[in-house]
Hints:
The protein is α+β, with helices and mostly antiparallel strands and 590 residues long. Among the domains are: 196-299, TolB, C-terminal domain (Neuraminidase), CATH 2.120.10; 343-589, Alpha/Beta hydrolase fold, catalytic domain (Rossmann fold), CATH 3.40.50.1820. 17% of the residues lie in helices and 37% in strands. An eight-stranded mixed β-sheet has the order 29-30-32-31-33-34-35-36, sandwiched between helices. It has a four-stranded antiparallel β-sheet with strand order 1-2-3-4, with no helix packed on it. A hairpin with a 6-residue loop joins strand 2 and strand 3 (42-46). Helix 1 (9-15) runs antiparallel to helix 2 and helix 6 packs antiparallel against helix 7.
Amino acid sequence: MSAALSSSLPDRLLAVTAAISPAFAKTDARLYHLADDSGQMQLWSLEPADGTRRQLTALDEPVAFFARSPSDDTIVFGVDCGGDERQQLHLRRPDGTGRALTDVPDAIHSWGAFAPDGSRIAYTANPRNGVDFDLFVQDLATGATVCLAQFEGQQKVLAWSPDGAWLTIQADRSHFDQELALVEVATGAVRPIERAHGPARYAAFRWRKDGSTAYVLTELGGDYIGVARFDPDAGTFTPLFMPDGDVETMALAPDGSRLAVAVNRAGWSELQLIDSTTGATTIVERPAGVIGELAWSPDGTQLILSQTDPTRPRGLWQVDAASGTVTPLLVADTTGLTLRPWRLVEFASFDGLPIQAWLALPDSGRKAVVWVHGGPESQVRPTWRPDVQAMLAAGYAVMLPNVRGSTGYGRRFAALDDVRLRLDAVEDLRAARLWLGARPEIDENAIAVMGQSYGGYMVLATLTRHPELWKAGIESYGIVHFLTLLRDTGPWRWRHRAAEYGDPIADREFLEEISPLTLNGRIRVPLLVAHGKRDPRVPFSETETLLAALAARQHPVESVLFDHEGHGFTRPDDKRRILAAVMGFLGREL
């Protein structure tokens, strides 16, 4: 993979390609993966021996995910329309032919699992009312589909038991409050799994082939996610590996002897191999980066991981399980690009709480941008961001804080912005701006704030509550008013969001008070606004309302709007358009 030559640095940065989601073929040494060589993520295969690659899909929309059958090289993959997140499932047979498995454009189909023999698939979807996700099982030979069980709220399938008898279902009440249940495939009977330690998160569920044990990512009452053993007969969990940082992804070796895990250590990923019986661990040394996925080879001798860092997009790396040797397998060539690293810094907020941030400095230039992540249940990680590298190349310093409410620092830290604590996170952003402005290499009178989604709310919130601190603002698909967001967001999401932001009835007055629209008259600086019209999370009407309010008082604002995008910008022309708009705006206003 290489960065294509282009007339401008932003175009060259956007042309650097990524590879993600490795999965070994069943019948030979091929490695399936997703890659954006064509401009959007599509399904590819790779011959590790000689690097030969073949593009397997060429769709107008990006492929969101894929899964390979346990019996052969049949693949199921998901595609939505224009970022609306209403994914439909598609089948690709080993001979390259295929068909659509679902065709309900108004419904979300959330992938689950193959049956152990590969004959059926299980997934959840919300066609019944657009809100609640029911459990479906489909026979791949006949296409016959059965609704096995109906549920309330968001549900997803985590695993199919090795004997084919049970499906593991996860119910999401909120990001930090989830429940598990086993559903009997023959009858649809639901057997809840008791939570012995109160509210919990579950991030993976991997069965041993004999069905005696499953390995689960969960907290067991602690602050961080670790690896626990699940006893299906007793319905109980016991700890295996509980580090002081979240285990974010896990892969079980084919013979069940080892687990490969990635642990979040101050944003970077630490790769460890764990003995599944004793819990003994071995750290695998490798180039620093953030791991996305892990995949074992069928014989258990090789481990493939996807990884990114600030100077490289996600690519595939190969680990020899015996020696621990790590070699690049499919990694972008960034030759000719001057790319700058990020470093971790820390500052104290208004109440003394330590807040971490990433700081990247240009070779020259004293202007700066503070970039705020979305979520808020998310974390800025040291990853590839073409926009950040473009700003650095143009002479702007970039600071990326993890304000309270961010994940990666434990359950307690993530709860520090819930509901009526919302504005404490805005004060963290103020503290970040003051810390940055006090640095001698930064011009404190030339600092902009930028964010996407919930980060867009943070931009608008700080511009209305601390307008004197900022020179300009850039917000993309941000929350303008919490009450209209909760009313108009995808109906399957509002309960989940209300748990984080507040109840639209009980907390109505507070939500009105903290909404940027209420205080939009305080915005003093020029603003750039961007949004996709098919956004199912933050409705496009939020941006329409903001633009109307600013126009009514003739406040300077630029807008970049996209007809065929959702919650983010994925199409090549649109990515070029938004980056050009951002760089042009900063050049004029900062």
